[in-house]
Specification:
376 residues, mainly alpha, globular
């Protein structure tokens, strides 16, 4: 997860300011490139659901990690918006394949061992990768390699991803228990709670991804300095790494849906603070609150959706993932366009905050119906 997601998907965020300076990218260009990655991820998630890799998950998962490593390096070999977009599309595809196929193996082993900690540790790898990518971006210019700043960032990330891929290849078991069965599911029944969850999950994809894409660029734009940019993304990764584990202690008190709603509202508040607090606190607090919520909302949202559709859980997960994917494709495009029109990322961040606040409010208003459905 650290290689596939932390580097393969999210290292674009801390490298983006250097890319904008080195290649002359506009906010609209940056949003287009980011959206290409999310289109690739959505396509990969859909393709992986057809079962063509059954029995060969390990092989395709490792191949996807190798592809992720090569595509990270390829980003340092061009300055074309079109080439960037194609590479990031393929990187999104590889990230989805690695996440789905390798997660199936790891979570299957967790089920066999009856361990409640495996999912938290596994998905905490996303935060670990984000934190490591921040350290790479901070350390790469210190090496004085002769490359441009963004090239050094991408090549350093590729080297770390290569090491991670070798470790995964050495540790990933060859025989595994699949995390899901192969039986056919019945048709999906669209209840009101499931509809609410799917819609709010899709809009969450729109809201979170704006800050997740442009946080470091916002710190650069506000002249926060290299240290603030580094710390903001490091805090995002560190808090994301432990968030899923820590939020589980709130579930007995508020319930799954209650914690999901709280996460949306906390993240909405965090986005407001990202553009309202003075430096250096704005990006640091924004990164901390983003990391503390987005992985939990992602994991708990899918868990709720699965439980709301016991007769067809995989269909529910697929449709929720599709809604989420569409939201995070649109988010960077809208944010880049608004930033180019206004000259900064304040308005798109506030738009994202309003969207997340509305999602959290809707879930709170529907909380009783959702909680009742979950108890059945």
């Amino acid at each position: 997860m650290a290689v596939a997601m932390g580097f393969g998907r999210f290292s674009y965020t801390p490298i983006l300011p250097a890319m904008m300076a080195d290649a002359g990218l506009s906010p609209r260009d940056a949003g287009l490139i980011a959206s290409a990655n999310f289109v690739g991820y959505l396509a990969g998630a859909v393709l992986a659901a057809y079962g063509w890799a059954h029995g060969r998950e390990r092989r395709f998962g490792l191949a996807a990690l190798v592809a992720t490593t090569l595509l990270l390096a390829a980003m340092g070999l061009t300055s074309s918006v079109l080439a960037y977009s194609v590479i990031r599309f393929l990187a999104g595809l590889a990230s989805a394949f690695a996440m789905i196929f390798i997660s199936g193996i790891v979570l299957g082993e967790g089920l066999r061992a009856r361990s409640e900690h495996v999912p938290s540790v596994h998905f905490g790898g996303v935060g670990l990768g984000i934190a490591l990518s921040s350290i790479c971006v901070w350390a790469a210019p210190l090496a004085a390699t002769g490359f441009s700043t963004s090239q050094a960032d991408w090549f350093t990330g590729a080297l770390v991803a290569l090491v991670g891929t070798v470790v995964v290849a050495a540790l990933l078991p060859r025989g595994h228990l699949a995390a899901g069965g192969g039986e056919r599911e019945g048709p999906l029944t669209w209840t009101r709670p499931l509809t609410v969850m799917t819609l709010t999950y899709g809009f969450f994809g729109f809201g979170y991804v704006i800050t997740a894409t442009f946080l470091v660029a916002m710190a650069r734009e506000a002249s926060g300095g290299h240290s603030v940019e580094f710390l903001a993304w490091l805090l995002t990764g560190a808090s994301a790494a432990v968030s899923v584990y820590l939020w589980r202690f709130a579930v007995p008190r508020f319930g799954l849906a209650g914690v999901y709603a709280i996460g949306l509202l906390v993240e909405a508040a965090g986005l407001v603070l990202t553009v309202s607090l003075p430096l250096p606190f704005a990006p640091l607090v924004g990164g901390l609150m983003l990391g503390a919520t987005f992985m939990m909302i992602t994991a708990y949202g899918l868990q709720i959706g699965r439980r709301l559709a016991p007769e067809s859980p995989r269909r529910a997960l697929a449709l929720m993932t599709a809604a989420f994917g569409i939201g995070q494709i649109i988010g960077p495009l809208v944010a880049g366009w608004l930033a180019e029109r206004t000259g900064n990322f304040t308005l798109p961040t506030l738009v994202a905050s309003v969207v997340l606040f509305c999602c959290g409010t809707v879930v709170v208003l529907e909380l009783r119906k959702i909680s009742t459905a979950l108890e059945r």
